[in-house]
C-alpha cells in the first residue's frame, strides 16, 4: 500500500493488481478419505503434511503410526485420534478436519471406530491394522452388523478375487466372512504395496455403491496412499473474501461463477444500444438494438443449455440430490401401525397388503364405459372414427403450446410432494 502511494503508476495497472480473483474451481462437497500406511509417522511426517496440504481430505486414516501415537505431531486444521498397536509397525490414527463432527465409538487394539456426521447420514468409519500372520478381528466387525459402516486399513490379506497373485490365510478367511455376511469391498484400482503387486490396503463395507478410489503415486513409505471419494455430502463452510481491501467474507455456496467474456461483451453492447435508442429515438438505433439483443439472447441460451447439460451429466454419475440435502421428513414421520378400513383397524400384514393391492388394482385399472350413457357412447364412437383416419403428418406444434398443456398435468393438492395419494395417507393411522 505504501509503495502504491509513493510511486507513479497508471490507473489500469492499479485496477489489474487490485482486481478481486474469485474462486474458479468447484469445491468438492463429497466426503474424501485418504488411507496411508506411513511406516512410522515420526520418519514420514513430511509425507503426511504434503498429502494433507495438497488433497485436503476430510478424513486421513493412518496405519503403521508406531510410537507417534504417544505424542502425535500437529497438522494444521486437523484433530487426531490415536490408538497404540501390538508391534512397532502397529498404531493407528484418525485425523479429521476441525469443522467435521466426529466422535469415538469404540477403540480396541489395532482398531478405531468413529461416528462421522455428514449432510444426510451418520456413518461409522474405522481404521484397522492386521499384523502379518494374524486374522482380521471379525468379532469386532460383527458388531457393525445391520449398520452403515466403512472400515479401512492394512489387512495384509491376499486373495485372487481382489487382484492378488495368490491367496494367504488372512485373505481366505476374509473372503469367507464376506460371503457369509454379504458385505462388500472398496478396492483400489491398482496395487497398494511397493514391494509386491498385491492389494492389501482397502476397505470393507455393507455397500460399496457410489465409492471411487485412486492410488496416489506419492510419498516415500513402502505403501502407496489411497484416496477414496464417498457418495456422501459434507456441509460446505468454505468462504471467500468479497473484496481484497476489506475483511468481508461470504459463504462459497453463495458464489455464482461469472459469465464468459464474450457473453459479457454482448450484454454491454446491448445496454449501449439501448441507451442510444432511449436518447435519440431513431429507427436506426432501434434496429441495432433488436439485432444485438437477438444475438445476445441466442448466445445466453446456448451458454445456459450447455451449463445445464454439464450439470445433468454430473448428476447422472450417482450424484443425486439426496446426497447433498438433509432428509428431514424421515425422523419426524409417525410409525406405521396399520390401516383403517370401514371403521375397522387392520394390523395383519397379509391383510394390509391385500387391501392395498385391491385398492391400487381398481385405481389403475382401465375405465369401463357405461353403454346406457349417451355421452360415453358418443365418446366411444369418436374414438373409433379416429382409429380409422388416414395416417397424415401432423401440423408443427409450438413449444409454448406443449409447455402450456403439460403444465395442466401438475400435481393438485390431493397429492403430496412425492405424489402420494391423500386418500392413502388418510387411511394410515398415527
From TrEMBL:
Gene3D superfamilies: Endonuclease/exonuclease/phosphatase. It comes from the Eukaryota. Coiled coil: none annotated. InterPro entries: Endo/exonu/phosph_ase_sf (IPR036691), Endo/exonuclease/phosphatase (IPR005135). Residues 139-227 form the Endonuclease/exonuclease/phosphatase domain. Pfam families: Exo_endo_phos_2. GO terms for molecular function: catalytic activity. This is Endonuclease/exonuclease/phosphatase domain-containing protein.
Amino acid at each position: 500500500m505504501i509503495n502504491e502511494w509513493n510511486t507513479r503508476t497508471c490507473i489500469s495497472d492499479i485496477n489489474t493488481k487490485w482486481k478481486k480473483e474469485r474462486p474458479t474451481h468447484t469445491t468438492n462437497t463429497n466426503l474424501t478419505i485418504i488411507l496411508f500406511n506411513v511406516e512410522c509417522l515420526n520418519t514420514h511426517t513430511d509425507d503426511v503434511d504434503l498429502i494433507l496440504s495438497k488433497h485436503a481430505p476430510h478424513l486421513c486414516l493412518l496405519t503403521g503410526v508406531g510410537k507417534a501415537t504417544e505424542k502425535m505431531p500437529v497438522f494444521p486444521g486437523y484433530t487426531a485420534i490415536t490408538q497404540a498397536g501390538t508391534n512397532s509397525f502397529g498404531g493407528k490414527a484418525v485425523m479429521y478436519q476441525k469443522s467435521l463432527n466426529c466422535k469415538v465409538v469404540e477403540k480396541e487394539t489395532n482398531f478405531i471406530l468413529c461416528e462421522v456426521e455428514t449432510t444426510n447420514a451418520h456413518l461409522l468409519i474405522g481404521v484397522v491394522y492386521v499384523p502379518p500372520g494374524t486374522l482380521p478381528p471379525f468379532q469386532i466387525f460383527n458388531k457393525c452388523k445391520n449398520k452403515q459402516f466403512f472400515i479401512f486399513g492394512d489387512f495384509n490379506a491376499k486373495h485372487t478375487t481382489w487382484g492378488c497373485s495368490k491367496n494367504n490365510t488372512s485373505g481366505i478367511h476374509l473372503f469367507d466372512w464376506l460371503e457369509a455376511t454379504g458385505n462388500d469391498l472398496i478396492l483400489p484400482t491398482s496395487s497398494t504395496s511397493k514391494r509386491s503387486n498385491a492389494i492389501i490396503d482397502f476397505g470393507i463395507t455393507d455397500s460399496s455403491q457410489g465409492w471411487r478410489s485412486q492410488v496416489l503415486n506419492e510419498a516415500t513409505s513402502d505403501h502407496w496412499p489411497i484416496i477414496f471419494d464417498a457418495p456422501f455430502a459434507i456441509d460446505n463452510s468454505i468462504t471467500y473474501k468479497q473484496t481484497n481491501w476489506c475483511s468481508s467474507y461470504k459463504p462459497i455456496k453463495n458464489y455464482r461463477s461469472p459469465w464468459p467474456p464474450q457473453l459479457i461483451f454482448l450484454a454491454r453492447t446491448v445496454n449501449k444500444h439501448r441507451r442510444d435508442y432511449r436518447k435519440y429515438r431513431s429507427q436506426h438505433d432501434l434496429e441495432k438494438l433488436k439485432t444485438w439483443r437477438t444475438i445476445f439472447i441466442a448466445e445466453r441460451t446456448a451458454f445456459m443449455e450447455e451449463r445445464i447439460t454439464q450439470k445433468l451429466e454430473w448428476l447422472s454419475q450417482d450424484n443425486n440430490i439426496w446426497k447433498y440435502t438433509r432428509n428431514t421428513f424421515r425422523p419426524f414421520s409417525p410409525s406405521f401401525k396399520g390401516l383403517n378400513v370401514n371403521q375397522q383397524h387392520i394390523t395383519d400384514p397379509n391383510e394390509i397388503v391385500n387391501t392395498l393391492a385391491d385398492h391400487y388394482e381398481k385405481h389403475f385399472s382401465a375405465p369401463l364405459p357405461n353403454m346406457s350413457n349417451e355421452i360415453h357412447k358418443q365418446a366411444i364412437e369418436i374414438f373409433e372414427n379416429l382409429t380409422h383416419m388416414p395416417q397424415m403428418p401432423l401440423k408443427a406444434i409450438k413449444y409454448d403450446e406443449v409447455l402450456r398443456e403439460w403444465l395442466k398435468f401438475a400435481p393438485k393438492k390431493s397429492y403430496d410432494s412425492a405424489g402420494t395419494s391423500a386418500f392413502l395417507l388418510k387411511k394410515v393411522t398415527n
